[in-house]
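Predict both folds.
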Amino acid sequence: MKAPALIAPSMNCNMYNNLVVQDNIDKLTSRGCHFVGPQTGELACKRDDIGRLSSIDDIVEAISDILTAKALTGKNVLVTAGPTIEEIDPVRFISNHSSGKMGYAIARSAKRYGANVTLVSGPVAINPPQGVTTAYAKTADEMYSSVKSLLPDNDVLIMAAACADFTVEAYSKEKIKKGGKLNITVNLKKTVDILKEVSKDKDGKIIIGFAAESGNLTENALKKLREKRLDFIVANDITDPRAGFGIDTNVVTIIGSHEDVVHYDVMTKDALAEKIIQKVVKLLGEK
């Protein structure tokens, strides 16, 4: 074939499961054709089974995957994403506005480049990327445990999650009642600093951090870069409406390990994820 071929089949489940069709799919696959789907869902006959056309997003992702050079083949990349939740009582918790979109975009991009990707996600409302191994962590301690156990088998850690910085000193098993009180005090303590802990012994791994700041962006990001011995850090000013939580764009400054500072204009989180993974590819090539 002169160009990659992608096929998105859609048909009745009985046709799709027919041995002749399956043999033809196997033959086309062996000759270099790529397939996306079909998905399971309600068919024209009203039966719920396999045979639905893949979503447009999945087809576009499959196209992007095919057309991306596999510069990370054989590399294992660990990505964290989303917020964590620290419970106060059975109905209340401490968290933040992170949607997980940035981390999920990074995981997709790393997968496109051929990496074996593991995504550790906090509680989010988006679907996990296709072809990515996804695990879930609710609290900062759970995310730390997951990262600590998975990191030895990975070449790269991209810590895009917005872990809660504080948790309660004493969790209440019963719902805290207002009663006649005008004020209720909840004592907090710091959560584990995951990046600081795992970067103590990098063992040749590439570790990338994120910094969401509301002031002194470069100074604060530089401090974090130095303290946590990062290969580079991605910092954004959360007061910029184009760079806040839950939206599809970002405006960032990336600072490298030699403290080289590069400011980027507004771009989509998918475009930024591509730039981050390209920097990872370059760093791996230099090692």
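Second protein follows, with its predicted structure tokens after the sequence.
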Amino acid sequence: MNQQSDTAQAGGAQVVRPWASLLIRDFSLVWSSCVLAAVCVQIRNVANLYQVYHLSGSSLQLGLTGFFQALPHIVMGLFAGMTADAFDRKKVILATHIFHLGPSIALAYLTMSGSIQVWHIYVFSILSGFIEVFSWPARSAMTANLVPTAYLMNAITLMSMVLQSSFLIGPAIAGLLIDHVGLTSTYFVSAAMFGPAILAILAMRASGVPHGERRRVSIKSMIEGIKFIWIERIILSLFLLDFGVTLVGFYRPILPIFASDVFKTGATGLGALYGAPAIGSLLGSTAVLMSGNFRRKGALAIVAALFFAGGLMLLGVSQYFWTAVAAVVLLGFTDSLSVAIRRTVVQYLAPDTLRGRAASMITVFAQSTNALGALLAGVAAELWGAPRALVIGGAVCVCMIVGISRAIPQLWRYSE
């Protein structure tokens, strides 16, 4: 790679081209592997949801399927982070890809034989979640060793786009496959697509062994990771900012109320509202890639959080459907900025021996906060109605952002 062709000097700071990290061979291989694996998982998840509803006709069992898919991330997140700091990260990623073949193939055979039951899907949803929870900390922790420090924001944003893209591409592919070739073939396709993902990891030359002193998987190691987050005030403030904003601003569970009762657009409108955050996230990640390696990450995190609060209030007061869609796009856009900043700062400040645990803390925080935020959103919508709940949530968001910024003033001043 000719590094000079992909970086430039502007005002003494290095400007990183949007595609810079993808020109690094090993990063492009792990990135390609992540894209394929994430799409495969989404295809299987959508097929699971479709099949559960087809078998049971129960919205409760549909909700339980989603719950079982997310549960391992909350239960095993910190343990997965310790694993990424104790073992060869490349081998961990390779193992997760190989193990992912099991649920897809088993579900395909059960469906083909006609013996599939809802509890089978629950079991394999939990198993798939446990496999996936070990993959992301290892990928995140290894990224910092594959690219130069100046490329870190670029590389992590590209990694974030993997998940964002999979939420759009995976369901679309799953829908086409289910309609045209059936559920059995859909599961087989999701398994087959892991083949190139496995080959990409095998083709990597870089080592996945953590630098420095190796850590054992233990309670002490877990406490070490928690203590690091507590001591590093910049990381702590970013986590608190995300926790506070998501807790009172988790809007996704109440979008069906807007589609059904507020705008009366039915399933088509609900699909547009649910797709809008993913579009906003991709636009936000693209903006980060185009801007290069900006330095005032702390200030940008605060500004993004304030705009997120504004998006909540805009959604709450929207009188027209497309205004609401624009508000949800804004929410996805600002959330993607926060994710890129948080993941970059964690990988930048954490020593290599702690990167897996630090990355896993992001997942545990996010999944736990989403669960609490979903509950709080439902209660608030029941008490005040969905529109007013979001306006109040946006106002509370602003108060929390100001409070966290004043309590940890280093965040506003933080730059790299």
